[in-house]
Amino acid sequence: MENVGNWRAFADALGYGNLPLNYFCRTELDNEPEKVASVLEKLKEECMNVENKERKSFQRELMMALLKMDCQGLVARLVLDFVLLTTAVEVASRWRELAEKLARVSRQQMEAYEAPHRDKNGLLDNECMWKPAYDFLLTWAAHIGDSYRDIIQELHVGLDKMRNPITKRWKHLTGTLILVNCLDTLRSSAFCPVGYGDFAV
Which residues form the SH3BP4 DEATH domain (predicted)? Predict the structure, then answer.
């Protein structure tokens, strides 16, 4: 995984302290990215294991570990990717309405987003509606700029403007907005030297 250059530090941050590399992979791995990927895969396996008494949330464990490793930029990028994808899935067939609220997208542009996802008969299955929604959101976010806070804030405002907004029942986005606005504070608290203020963790 990009920005995580040491499998041992990553494993320790995930709570796998003192476990050898062969706990995470069966074969000999040559480079560090593969080792990091094997640790990530192990976390995924454990989180997906229904027999595990202590069910872990993959996203929560990953984000916590990355924050412990001071990878705030990577956390922000992952959070933004997660927000865009889950929003696309949540709005699905209502994506055109959201597109109008966010960017005043023309009918022709909307059809262009949908075209690659239509079947050979020119139909777009309801279950595939998240795909043009995601394509649109990626393009829209790129035009907004590099600020993940601004993108999530604008997205929240756009969703709130929709008829029967999903934000009334879907509180995740509000929580995410709070999280991204607190990242700097969390980081400074986590990495404040002991003895400096009350924020040392």
Answer: 1-68
Global model pTM greater than 0.85: no
- Tell me the CATH number at 149: 1.10.533
For residue 156, the one-letter residue type is H
Q: Among residues 121, 125, 153, 151, which one has the least CA distance to residue 138?
A: 151
Residues 111 and 54 in one domain: no
Question: Using CA atoms, how far apart are residues 189 and 199, in angstroms rounded to an integer?
Answer: 5
Q: How far apart are CA 139 and CA 151, in angstroms?
A: 12
Report the C-alpha gap between 54 and 111 in whole angstroms.
46
- Residue 25's domain comprises 7-69
Q: Among 69, 96, 116, which residue terminates a domain?
A: 69
